[in-house]
Amino acid sequence: MESQQTRVLVQLRDLILKGEFAPGERLAEVPLAEKLGVSRTPVRLALAALEQEGLIEPSPTNGYMMRRFTPREIADSIAVRGHLEGMAARLVAEHGVSRQLSLDLRSCLRDGDRALSKSGMNYDDYALYGAMNDRFHQLIVDAAGNSALARAIDMNNRLPFAAPSTMLPMQNADNERQQWMVYAHLQHHTLVHVMEKGEGARAQALMQEHVSVAQMNLDHALEQPETAAQFLPAMRLMFGHH
């Protein structure tokens, strides 16, 4: 069930980013389940996860509806995550990477390598990579040992596209999307190496650069008319500046 739920989450996120649902549109479990060819349970769980990511919000008439958001909101949340997770990476490097943490992080690296090893990725591969990415970042946040920082990151992750696993798809360009992911995963490898060497300042800078890849990905996605169409009509003039 967990694998199916993750796959459904990836599929629904893709549909949202392709502008399949209009801002304010109600998202009902049954039609979505029929559309994806699954039962209602993974759809219900995926919708709850999407609410946590800030992409949808509770509907006044029950269930969920598409949230209205702007490119500026997304850019702000990504920037904040970069600073917060950069601090977490620095603390981990300064505290020292335990043997168990090293084993767990390197297990994530192997899972990411496996997901990205195919010439063409399917939804299961994206789901595997997304789960790995969530786990990788959470391991670092937990190992930082700062509860206030962890709460700040959790709160920021509830904003649109701030969470690590929220990967923006490239419209009709799966190979390009995979290239972004390969680049980001190479940064994972480097980050683990630097933290294990105890280089706090470099670990912080690398994590901030790593998170900035999400902003680069967003900027690219907003160049695609199909992606830009989902945002508020009043914000469309902004897309010409990306």
UniProtKB/TrEMBL annotation:
The HTH gntR-type domain, residue ranges: 2-69
Keyword NADP: no
InterPro entries attached to this UniProt entry: GntR_C, TF_FadR/GntR_C, Tscrpt_reg_HTH_GntR, WH-like_DNA-bd_sf, WH_DNA-bd_sf
Keywords per UniProt: DNA-binding, Transcription, Transcription regulation
GO MF annotations, alphabetized: DNA binding; DNA-binding transcription factor activity
CDD domains assigned to the protein according to its UniProt record, in alphabetical order: WHTH_GntR (cd07377)
PANTHER family on file: HTH-TYPE TRANSCRIPTIONAL REGULATOR LGOR-RELATED, TRANSCRIPTIONAL REGULATOR, GNTR FAMILY
Protein name in the entry: GntR family transcriptional regulator of vanillate catabolism
Record lineage: Bacteria, Pseudomonadati, Pseudomonadota, Betaproteobacteria, Burkholderiales
